[in-house]
Design goal:
641 residues, alpha/beta, Alpha-Beta Plaits, eight-stranded mixed beta barrel, globular, TIM Barrel
Amino acid sequence: MKHIFRKNFPFLICLLLSGLVLQLLIALYIESKDAYREIDETLFKGANNIKYYLKHNFISKDLNSSSLTIEEIYKDSSFLHERAMENNIDYFYLLVKDGDDIVYAIMSDEKEELDKLHMAGYWFSLQDAGDDSFDETWEAFDSDKPIYIESKDMWGEYRSIYIPQMSHDGRKYIAGADITTTSLKKLILVKSLKSVLPLFFFLIIIIPAIVIIKKSFLEKRKMEDYIEIMDKRDKLTNAYSRNYGLHLLSKSFNEYHTSGKNFSICLIDIDNLKFINETMGMEAGDTLLIVVERIVSRVFRKTDCLIRLEGNKLMVILPQFNRKYTKEVFKALEEKIEFFNLLNKKSLFIRLNYTMSEYTSGSMMDFIEKTRENLKIESSDKEWKNKNLQDDILRGIRNNEFQTYFQPKVYMKEKRVAFEALVRWLHPEKGLIPPNMFIPIAEKSFLINEITKIVLEDSLVLAEKLETNISVNLSLVSFENSRFLHEIKERLITSEYSKYITFELTEGLAIKDIDATLIKMNKLKTAGISFSIDDFGSGYSSLPFIEKLPINEIKIDRSFIRNVNNSKVNQLVIEFVNKIANFKGFSVICEGTEDSLQIKKLMFLGNFSFQGYYFGRPEPSDEVILKYNNGFYLDKLREFV
């Protein structure tokens, strides 16, 4: 009897301990459920009352980043903070959409904490806060019901509620309230301990009994579990490993032949992984692999199995997949890739090749090989020249191959000279590559933002040396990226020479979405930046929008200048634009001026500001500085004064 008891003693102890732990878990579950219900009721009541705590028309369609003074922000935030404390809530806030971003219209906190944020957290980007619930928050604006979520940002982790509401003039906003996970856990722990304290004391007594469990048994079990996990999962990406993935594929084959369950596979090739590894290092390549795995796992269904087939290839097994949805899947994949390429800050970009195949007959390996061949065919159909150039651009950025040239802009009446910054790529093997060859490719991979930063930094250096205005071109891709605009705004705020910077926007870009353009331009103007409209008259009817835009100058497209001596229509257009400029108080630059006859004719039509080869070609900053200091540009200007 004693022998039996001694032999089964570890089992009996485990059984007793399991029973006690089970009771503890049940108690914790019950108390946790009650605590969550209590928390959710508190969150709902508090968030629903925000509209009563603040004035009725706090949120309106006109509310923007400059609506409140810093004193008003502190006053409203502090008042809301006091109400939050009264409701046992950590934070109150209101969220509104701002273009493609979500911002805090107000957040409750103490003044000391608010001082750490730009504008005390007013109009503070949810993305800049590092909030991982951005997508859920965006979707919440389309909901009519309260939404509870678990989220985290730069300040911590929270249990939150979003209550979609409508302002008096029809603007959709979200009233939100947060209780930190720390507060939530504290409440659950306090309530649970009260009910299970006797169990805790009992557990403390029996804990020493655990040591009698054989160590070898635990180690063996742990090793078996570890081997099983390692065999199933890829160490880096958490996708299924190749061996286990082929096992899953074999099961799909068996189910097809035994019960007729159809399935497809999707092969995905990370086309630029080798290039990233070679130019940026293996760590960057590993990061890219992890990102791709996460993107792919979010695109496909939970029932689909994601496998890392080999170094740069992933395979997805799709049981009972309807092929008519293939385009939708690939579209969703491309959208998420584009979103990552747009927002990433590490010069990484994703380029994938992919194909889908449905199994109908043949062996498993033949099926995989056939799909591989399809992938090769589809990959070869893409523009390899552009893809190679895209890789070269990233390498060129890292090797400082992009240089900024500067072309003079002369203002006769003011007798001054400014410059336009123009990027040039000095490729070590291919020589000088013109912008029209690499700018469109850079825009597709969003490397244009990195190139723009280079041009901006070079322009600030020249502005410091010459103390004259420098124009920098902004592409559509860069201008539509709110995060990038915020970055360059913050950079310019820190420079005392930002007052010399003018951003040039093309005419089509400026009027594409006039309301959004105005908002972005006004934000940048707070950093002392001026604006110029480039290529004016190149095909858009933007005259009705000129008076709305906060511009300092427009540049008449060279197509009007080329035949100005022979075209009465061109002369009338230029004369008309000059009259509007004189009335509205902005400058007019005539682009592409190449001979003195053109310039004299343009002066007769009322224009006295020019840019073109007659006054100087784009040149490196050293040559520009030398000519500027020697009076070369002013001498050219004096020919007509």
